[in-house]
Amino acid sequence: MKFLLFTLAILSSIFGYGQQIESNYKIYDVKNQKIITVDDIIKDMENADVLFFGEDHNDSIGHYLEASIFKKLSEKYPKRSALSLEMFHTDVQPVVDEYLAGVITEKNFTREARAWNNYKDYKPLIEYAKANNIDVIAGNAAARYSNAVTKSGLDILKNFPKSSLAFLPPLPIDTATGRYNDKFTETLGGHSMGSMKIYQTQNFWDATMAWSISRYAKTHKGIKILQLNGRFHSDEKLGTLAKLLTYSPKLKILNISAFSDESFENPVWEKFKNLGDYIIITNPKVKRSF
User: Fold this and answer.
1) Topology of 2-6+27-142+223-282 in CATH?
2) What residues contact 147, with CB distance under 8 A and at least 6 apart?
3) How far is 153 from 150, CA to CA, in rounded Å?
4) 272, 255 in Cβ contact below 8 A?
5) What is the pLDDT of residue 16?
6) For strand 25-29 and strand 135-140, is the pairing parallel, antiparallel, or unpaired?
């Protein structure tokens, strides 16, 4: 019930009366070259362990679809599903667990777990997990570690005390070469010493999220995990997704790349086919969440 109420509240802020949400997104199956539904993705999870949802953080329709996928996945695999989030850090896992257990208030949770400013977009998933006793993995690296890497490079991590290692992926952390590096360089507009340290931070985030998923999967056999992150982290099966396969090469992974695009009415799917197993294009005319 809480899930439904929160989802309806979000939808009412996005859509006018009578407007159907289904008309504002399209899902394309790259392998089979056809338009599909959320239910088709859930069916495909029979043969997969982890589903990456690469989002644009302010895409309202994307957030709705994340909640829908999570609900349907958990319904199909009761007591065998989990949620992993870029939006919370490994060092606040106890706070996340306490809120899911119902022993702390939402106010304490959002403050002490350092929830993102747009937490309202992820709240339906957290509340659904809480209501249905589903684990939530706080997957990303805390800002203090990220800032240290951005300032001094990845080697700084070896100087942290042993007590910090519980929140960090195995050291040393490699930086990805090839296509991922090229994409990052294009985004920043070229190479520099500063951009290299930022790229190391990007790789640190990838490694931390991948390690968080891998560690959970190794101790929870048969669990279906939905991972939410900014789509740069998983587009083209690079970044976090590629790093996860180095930690857990036997995991079967599917990925979604979701974004709004001006071609929404008549998408050229061939243009996007390299991004993932499924491409979700949302209506750019729909109000952003922030």
Assistant:
1) Rossmann fold (3.40.50)
2) none
3) 6
4) no
5) 42
6) unpaired
User: DSSP state, 23?
Assistant: G
Name the strands in the sheet holding 224-230, side by side, starting at the edge strand that comes first in the sequence.
34-36, 25-29, 278-282, 253-260, 50-55, 224-230, 81-89, 135-140
DSSP helix/strand/coil, 162: helix
Sign of the alpha-carbon dihedral angle for 124, 78, 243, 237: negative
Q: Which residue has the tokens 């338009």?
A: 35
Q: Are strands 25-29 and 278-282 parallel, antiparallel or unpaired?
A: antiparallel
How distant, in Å, are the alpha carbons of 80, 139, 146, 270, 279 from that of 228?
A: 18, 10, 19, 24, 15
Walking along the chain (290 residues) 10 residues at a time, the average pLDDT comes out as 53 48 96 98 98 97 97 97 98 98 98 97 97 98 97 96 97 95 85 74 98 98 97 98 98 98 96 97 93
Distance, in Å, from the CA atom of 208 to the CA atom of 216, rounded to the nearest integer, reads: 12
Residue 244, amino acid: L
What pLDDT shows up at residue 17? 33
Pairing assessment for the beta strands 81-89 and 224-230 based on DSSP bridges: parallel
